Amino acid sequence: MSLGLDTVKYRNHEVVLRPAVDLRRTLLDASLDLIANEGLERLSMREVARRAGVSHQAPYHYFEDREAILAEIVAEGFASLRDDMLEAIEGLDDPHARLTAIGNAYVAFALSRPAHFKLMFRSELVRQERHGEAEACAQSAFDVLVSTINDVPARGRAHADPALVLAAWALAHGAATLLLEGKLDRHCGKGRRARVAAAEGILGVFEQLLRHRS
What we know:
There is one protein chain. The protein is mainly alpha-helical. The protein folds into two domains: about 5-65, Arc Repressor Mutant, subunit A; about 65-214, Tetracycline Repressor, domain 2, CATH 1.10.357. The chain has nine helices and two strands; from the N terminus they run ββααααααααα. The chain has helices at about 20-40, 45-50, 65-90, 95-110, 115-120, 130-150, 160-180, 185-190, 190-214, and strands spanning about 5-10, 15-20. Strand 1 and strand 2 form a beta hairpin. Helix 3 (about 65-90) packs parallel to helix 6 (about 130-150), helix 4 (about 95-110) runs antiparallel to helix 6 (about 130-150) and helix 4 (about 95-110) runs parallel beside helix 7. The longest helix has 24 residues, at about 65-90.
């Protein structure tokens, strides 16, 4: 009978066991730590195993290969981003304010989860068409943006303007990337609080332009 436990290492000839679900999480956390501190190029199944304190074969019990680990991180990232955006607009009725709120949530997500964010848009590393969960989570997050823009007043249109959807996404993503990489520090200051304030200012300008357009 399976107890849901996995062998993770030997110590004085005694088997040390850890719940399987915990080991899977441990492997993902080790991968995220590796990406955050040493970059994506350093991530390998053997290095993840070493950092997790397990045998080099242990990751293969949960993930087929390196891309499978990355795909799960991507799915996790998009699911969390979607939840953050939905939480940000809860209780907001004004459509322009809702759009700004999800933009701010997008930037805040990037700043708080840089390892996830840096990987989520690297299609050459994770081919989403091969990983259904990652693809579905990405689409679900994007749908939040589309549905929010659908509510923004626009002359003569009943649905979201595709150009406006892309403009809003490009602005939030560009701001997040520049802030995350420190490219705007000279202009807005260092530290999370300064970066968040800078993002709010950038997205606030976009909101005012949209209000004028409407």
